[in-house]
Write a structure and sequence with these properties.
heterodimer, A: 160 residues, DNA polymerase, domain 1, five-stranded mixed sheet, B: 716 residues, Aldehyde Oxidoreductase, domain 4, seven-stranded mixed sheet, flat
Chain lengths: 160, 716
Amino acid sequence: MIETIQFEINGSPTQLSLDPNTILMWALRNELSLTGTKFGCGLGFCGSCTVILDNEPVRSCMIPLSDAKGKKLITIEGLSKNGSLHPIQKAFMKNDALQCGYCTPGMIMNAYGLLLKNPEPSRQEVIDGMEDNLCRCGTYGRIIESIQMAGKEMKGGVAV
Amino acid sequence: MKREEKITEQLSRDMNNLREMDRRNFMKRIGGGLVIAFSVTDMPLLAGCSPQEDEKRDVNAYLKIGEAGRVTLYTGKVEMGQGPITSLPMMLADELDVAIESVDIIMGDTDICPYDEGTYGSLSTRAFGQVLRATAAEARAILLKMAAGELSTDPNQLQVSNGLVSTISDPAKQVSYAELTKGKAILETVKEKPELKKAAEMKIMGSSRLHVDAELKVTGQAKYSGDIQLPGMMYAKIVRPPSLGAKLISVDTSAAEAIEGVEIVREEDFIVLLHASQDTADYAITRVKTEFEEEIMEVDNDTLHEYLGKNGTEIREIGSGGDPDADIDASGTLFVSEFKDPYIAHAPIENHTATAVFEGDKLNIWASCQTPYSTKEDVAEALGIPQEKVRLNEIFTGGAFGGKIYNPQAIEVARIAKLSEKPIQLVYSREEEFLYDRLRPAALVKIKSGITADGEMVLWDYNIYFGGRRGAKHFYDIPNHRTRNLNPSGESKGHPFYTGAWRAPSNNTNTWARESQIEIMASAAGKDPLQFRLDHLAENQKMTKVLEAGAEKFGWTPAVGPSGRGYGLACGIDAGTYVVVFVEAEVNKSTGHVQVKRAVVSQDLGLVVNPQGVIIQAEGCVIMGLGYTLSEEIEFEGRKMLTRNFDTYTLPQFSWTPQIDVVNIDKQDEPPQGGGEPAIICMGGAVANAIFDATGARLYQLPMTPERVLEAIRAT
């Protein structure tokens, strides 16, 4: 059952010898100690476990580790470079777009995926792209502003 | 217990804590410097913080001025998104006259922070915050006295800025707090009522400050209790019943045990699977075969309110005046309504989670909770060990809203750690989170009210079944009135599920019912709903001002409902704060879909410490309030819960977000009141009234789903 699976995580090649059916979220959190990716509902409804897999935002609670084989993964820990925060992170801070912060990594990763495809989204496009990420504290308005602000600042240069 | 008795009990507990405190050990643990502890001897200090009768006081604070000039605040409060990690240091720094950047805060560590009842009831600022200010002011006075000795002058000849004391006549003569406390280990308690700063003297309070924990949270570095990883830690899954109250008849764990690495611990019906991988533990639990005998309870969503009405037999009057049984004059009109509220869940995105390890005979726990101290007591009791052998550690909580006052997961993780003798992490699944949540109780409200031919309210007979008393009393000028609470000793009694405090407990139900009924009468009287309220608030200048300020921001123009505009408002009082919400809603008459386009919150909450923090809390109240108003409802049959994840329990989403404006009445010289809860109480009533204004349809049941809205429109 154990298989060695190689992939790139936050720019570094890595490998895990695990059951390939292991849920990606648990592999990230418990094997690689990347605990910024959060468990919320376990069925892909809330988005707090969102990570980027080959430029696509995915719900890591819904996919097996084997899906990452040979691919590039980015988690919240991989967004800041050389101690400098990513513009999306900066915009969230500037707009105070968080409260308890538990959904925040998933929000930021989903926004990252959205901006990769659509660097300067309209308000409605942000809403459509973020609709299935849930925040119980009710910070949606500030998140929408943050994503638009980050998009404008980056002018298309989203990728880390 | 009477309020006074409760306070006395609480106060005596605080004093005992201080007396019992081994000062030398305490100073060793907390480090050198000047430590100021607040011991309550002067109740008038807290006058004006006006907690509800059923709330407990918490009145503990201490702070340390360390050798390197860092000031550390120790508090039993926890940060769960509501912002005390930012606002409490603001209060402290301002009163102590130090730079905000020099303040550190340690929260919810039961070994080094003072006892605290819990982070709830919007008490962090209005009760604890005032105590903290007093403690800081006392610390400032003590340091000035020490500086006076150092500089050979009188304390009133001194000034302080950024922790540097200097003489007014010659500012070059100076000494810093750090120098004064260097090498000292002094423990002082506050004995007199210190003078708090007036608004004009405040330099930090009243100016907006961004969340100081934001960077940790946007980088994924903020630690929640499930992020703690310990060597040799095992992940636990507990064998659960299909419904509450079900009794275990038989269990077969052999298929689960056949999975490599699975271990089982058991204590009677408490059966737990352990594995070094969460993933495998999640799978293994599905291989356990069980047979349960479920408890029969004849109630479901369809019969719920009939059930509540029938069982709400224990009556407690909580207010009356005039003759509530009076016959209305023949020229008057009587209105009889029944309002129905369902069970709703807290549904924080972080489920109840805990990690625990025994180090020797001491149990270390990290738990997502609002109440580290009572959780510590519960754990110690469950394990039969002394309280000092349990430590709850500082940790972020991923949303709570009242749902993490109770922490069964902490007790369970402790039991498992003891049984297995291993470090354990227990993460509730979303399905467990729903089933074991202390739901907002379902409620029935029956109101009989009346107006004269001139549109004057003359009768108000208000009865709430099972929903609770907070916010039940009305505040309008009505000569004959009565408010009754039915099944007041209920708590979870009579309900098929556990129930408890949900953000502004009881007040969402009460404000929605009251403010709906008010507008039913306003419309019948041919009056503008805002003017109708103002006409009955002659005695209540505070609410009048809040209403007028909100109306101005909203751009309210008088009209008799239904005006077709989709305007609605509701007002109420919660946690000492007077609040009104105005909304504009669009109702799709063919689908029943309701979209709230904009909302204005106007509130009088006394001193505003962090304006930005208050605005963010009010925004959160509007968004979260749309959930209980439009979509949230637990579906169930007896004690079996059918709504167990977000596919069937609909939380507010991005597309629901209205434009939100918040008006805070300027009262910077008054004591602070609640900020995290009040605005949410108005959402049900404001939206219900907006739907009526748009369509003429009156809804009597929450949530106002598209189906219910359509049904109500058809009935008009």
